[in-house]
Amino acid sequence: MSTLKRRAPRCVGHKGAAHLAPGNTLESFRAAILAGVDMIEFDVLPENRDGSGRLLLAHDYEALKQGTPLTLEEGLEHLSGERYAGIELDVDVKLPGYGARVVSALRQAGLIERSLVSGTFSCELDAIRALEPELRLGWSVPRARRDYTDDMLTAIPALAALSGYRALLPRRARRCLGSGRFDAIMAHWRLVTPRLVQAVAEGGGELYVWTVDDAALMERLTALGVDGIITNDPTLFSRLESD
To answer: Closest Cα partner for 141 from 100, 200, 101, 89?
Structure first.
């Protein structure tokens, strides 16, 4: 049996570190840094549903009702500070239509090289690629407003749908990555299989898994060889590093 130790995946803090401080806030970003993340994920949403208004750091419109969200410019100014040097960013674009504004903000903050823009709308990612070929892109799958497998009323149909999606995803991922359309696949943990890990590697991309808040599941995904794990609690990674 091989005695080689598998490389630990990159630790990506979801909304910063949403289990340690309110997500998509400066407090959450600071908590993520203290927990030792390699990358910080945060969400960008337009102030108005028609795509107009300021770009804000929020996961959904319910979140916008709670407190005063950061603007994208405020968040990027903070994250471009010396304290965050070397920390990469996963900028999750929730809806289509404002990708060009996100690209412009990243350029102005000097953060293109450190950033990956992810989203579920492939057409929006294609538009961003045309605007800024050097910006890395991550295709997030599947497209869902929430995790329907956590609800007893929706779990069975949701799991059935995921089963079919899981079978088709490796081929689609390999093709999209191999053609240079995307640079990474951001997959719900229920979609991750050895076939998907192999397909992403063959396509020359990276596989990030969301959203994982269980240490045992982190260990299983690490054994599969995923490139990054997105979590609300980055402190769980200390168990992986100590094993």
So the answer is: 200
184 exposure class (CB count in 10 Å sphere: 0-12, 13-18, 19+)? buried
* CATH code of residue 35: 3.20.20.190
The closest of 203, 204, 209, 202 to 227, measured between CA atoms, is: 209
The number of folded domains in the chain is: 1
Q: Rounded to the nearest 5 degrees, what angle is found at the Cα of 132, between the Cα atoms of 130 and 134? A: 120
Give domain status of residue 3, yes or no: no
Residue-number span of the structural domain to which 171 is assigned:
10-242
By the 10 Å C-beta count (0-12 exposed, 13-18 middle, 19+ buried), 226 is classed as: buried
In terms of residues, how long is the chain?
243
From residue 192, alpha-carbon distances to 84, 113, 184, 227 in Å are 30, 27, 14, 12
Burial class (CB in 10 A: 0-12, 13-18, 19+), 75: buried
CA separation for the pair 186, 90 (Å, rounded): 10
The single-letter code of the amino acid at 237 is F
In 3D, which of 242, 228, 213, 241 has the Cα closest to residue 41? Answer: 228
Predicted TM-score (pTM) of the model is 0.91
State pLDDT tens for residues 224-235.
Answer: 999 999 999 999
Number of H helices, E strands in the chain: 9, 9
Which residues of the chain have a pLDDT value below 50?
1-5, 153
Asked if the structure places residue 99 within a domain, the reply is yes
- CA separation, residue 20 to residues 28, 99, 109, 159, 236 (Å): 7, 29, 27, 29, 12
